[in-house]
């Protein structure tokens, strides 16, 4: 059916059809304006939450307060919800050509990150599927994607061979590597991770225990607490040495 044939021949019916179309267009325009207003409100709330979180973090500096911690956590959760909704909003594709805005220069991915190269060859890379002639590389398109590889546990097995002299009774063996916690199973990297997660990322030990259990490693909260205590004692000399200097630089002493 052509566009002309889609309209009725009767004048009154045509008027009714046009009025219905205009009403539908008006309704859609109202919906669009409503969405725009809601988006503007969300953006304003996002900026307000960011400022409020920054203010609370400044108040939190240098002292511990469970009330402040809860307030910051609740605000950050609300901020995440708003930003997630903003990211999930459908992208409007204009029906009429518009002036293309200047593209924002995307910040390049950090050079220090390791690169994993994946080469995607066509299904037939040796011969042409059209004529059967040999194919040769003309060039390549390269695009980088930021990916996250979840942290993983590993077991470091320390092996110390014993060597015996074939002429005398002398036996040689390397000394056992030092451990942060005597006879403890935790390596320095794991201890550092637990402390950073607890004190820098505000991740309680019981939550860490649940996360590690999902990876198949059972680490009880009480064990993690003992590790934290032992490591804090190890770090105390460093705190005693650097603490006063840090406080002076922050104007707190």
Describe the protein.
- With 253 residues, the chain is an all-alpha fold.
- Among the domains are: 9-88; 183-249, no CATH class.
- It has five helices and two strands, in the order ααββααα.
- It has a two-stranded antiparallel ribbon.
- α4 (205-214) crosses α5 (221-249).
- The protein is flat, with a radius of gyration of 32 Å.
Average per-residue pLDDT, rounded, comes to: 80
Distance between the termini: 84 Å
> Tally the helices: what do you get?
5
Helical residue percent band: 40-55%
One letter per element, helices H and strands E, the order comes to HHEEHHH
Q: Which spans of ≥5 residues are poorly predicted at pLDDT below 50?
A: none
Strand content: under 5%
Q: What would you say about this model in short?
A:
Residues 183-240 form the Transposase IS66 central domain. This protein has 253 residues and is mostly helical.
Task: Lay out the secondary structure.
Layout: H1 11-60, H2 66-88, E1 163-164, E2 171-172, H3 188-200, H4 205-214, H5 221-249
Top keywords for this entry?
single chain, 253 residues, mainly alpha, 2 strands
């Amino acid at each position: 059916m052509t566009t002309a044939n889609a309209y009725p021949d009767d004048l009154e019916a045509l008027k009714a059809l046009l009025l219905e179309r205009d009403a539908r267009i008006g309704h859609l325009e109202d919906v669009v304006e409503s969405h725009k207003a809601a988006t503007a409100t969300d953006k304003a709330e996002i900026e307000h939450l960011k400022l409020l979180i920054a203010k609370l973090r400044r108040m939190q500096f240098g002292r511990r307060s469970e009330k402040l911690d809860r307030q910051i956590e609740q605000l950050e959760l609300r901020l995440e919800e708003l930003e997630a909704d903003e990211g999930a909003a459908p992208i409007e594709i204009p029906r009429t050509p518009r002036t293309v805005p200047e593209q924002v220069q995307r910040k390049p991915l950090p050079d220090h990150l390791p690169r994993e190269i994946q080469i995607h060859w066509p299904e037939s890379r040796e011969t042409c599927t059209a004529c059967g002639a040999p194919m040769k590389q003309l060039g390549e398109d390269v695009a980088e994607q930021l990916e996250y590889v979840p942290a993983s546990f590993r077991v470091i097995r320390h092996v110390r061979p014993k060597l015996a002299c074939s002429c005398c009774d002398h036996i040689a063996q390397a000394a056992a590597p030092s451990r942060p916690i005597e006879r403890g199973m935790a390596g320095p990297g794991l201890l550092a991770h637990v402390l950073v997660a607890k004190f820098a990322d505000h991740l309680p030990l019981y939550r860490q225990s649940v996360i590690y259990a999902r990876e198949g490693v059972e680490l009880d909260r009480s064990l993690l607490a003992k590790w934290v205590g032992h490591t804090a004692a190890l770090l105390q000399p460093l705190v005693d040495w650097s603490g006063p200097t840090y406080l002076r630089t922050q104007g707190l002493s």
